[in-house]
Amino acid sequence: MHVVPPPGAARALPPGQREVPELPVMHYGRVPTFRPERWTLVVEGATRDGERHVLDYEAFCALPTTPVRADLHCASRWSVLDNEWEGVLARDLVEAHPPAGDVTCALVYAEYGYSATVRLEDLTAPGAVLATSRGGRPLTPEHGFPVRLVLPQLYSWKGPKWFRGWEYLTEVKRGFWEDRGYHAVGDCWRQERYAYQEAEEPGRG
Ligand SMILES: Nc1nc2c(c(=O)[nH]1)N[C@H]1C(S)=C(S)[C@@H](COP(=O)(O)O)O[C@H]1N2
Ligand SMILES: [Mo]
Q1: CA of 182 to the centre of ligand 1 (A)
Q2: Is the pTM of this model over 0.85?
Q3: If I label 173, which of 56, 116, 198, 205 is the partner at 20 to 30 A Cα–Cα?
C-alpha cells in the first residue's frame, strides 16, 4: 500500500515542509521500558457494544499486518519521505472493535499519558497503521517500540509512539498538544498547526 498526497496535489512535500534524510528522535519525556507481560492495547470509550476491549501483547502480535509506504511530516517543518512501515491497519482494529454510531473522533494514547485528538475518518484512512516495523526491522525503542500509530495525512504529533490504545469520543476531547494550542484536526496538507485556525474554519475543530 502506498499512501500518496490527496488527489490534485503533486507528489511533493506539504506546504512549508523540508525533506530530511532520516527520522530524528523527537518526543516529550522519557523512552518507556517495554514490559510485554504488562502491555495491553485498549479500545474504550463509546464502543458499539459499550464494552472496553483489551488485547494483550500476544493477541496483538497475532493480528494480520500490512505494509504501508508513507511520508512522515512533523509540525516543526521537517518531513521524511517513503518510510516503509508495516503493521496492523488502524481501520482493521476499528472494524474489529467498532465505535457507536455517534462517534466523531478518538483520543489516541500512549505510555506516560501522551495523547492526541484524531477524527474517526483519519483513523480509518487507508494508510493509517499501527506500525511495528520500519524499513523491514522492528521499531527501535526511541522510535516507538513495540508499536506507534502512523497517520500519514496528519502532522506526526497525532501519531503516538509507544501506542497503547484509543478512546472513542462523541465530542472532541483535546490531547497533549491540542491542549497546548495545537490544532484538533492537524491535516498537514492544509497546514493545520494551531488551535486558532479552528475558529477561522468552523467545523474543523
Ligand atoms: N508518545 C509520544 N509519541 C510521539 C511524540 C511524543 O512526544 N510522545 N511526539 C510526536 C512528534 S511531535 C513527532 S515529530 C514524532 C517523531 O517521531 P520520531 O522520533 O520517530 O522521529 O513522534 C510523535 N509521537
Ligand atoms: Mo513533531
Answers
A1: 14
A2: yes
A3: 56
Return the ligand 1 atom nearest residue 23 CA: 21
In the numeric block, which cell numbers belong to residue 102? 455517534
Query: Given ligand 1 and candidates 31, 161, 164, 166, which is best to mutate, with the most ligand atoms within 8 Å of its CB?
Result: 161
Domain extent listing, the chain: 35-174
Q: Which ligand is nearest to the CA of 158?
A: 1
Whether residue 157 has its Cβ less than 6 Å from ligand 1: yes
Q: Each residue of 96-120: pLDDT tens digit?
A: 999 999 999 999 999 999 999 999 9
CATH number listed for the domain at residues 35-174: 3.90.420.10
pLDDT at position 6: 58
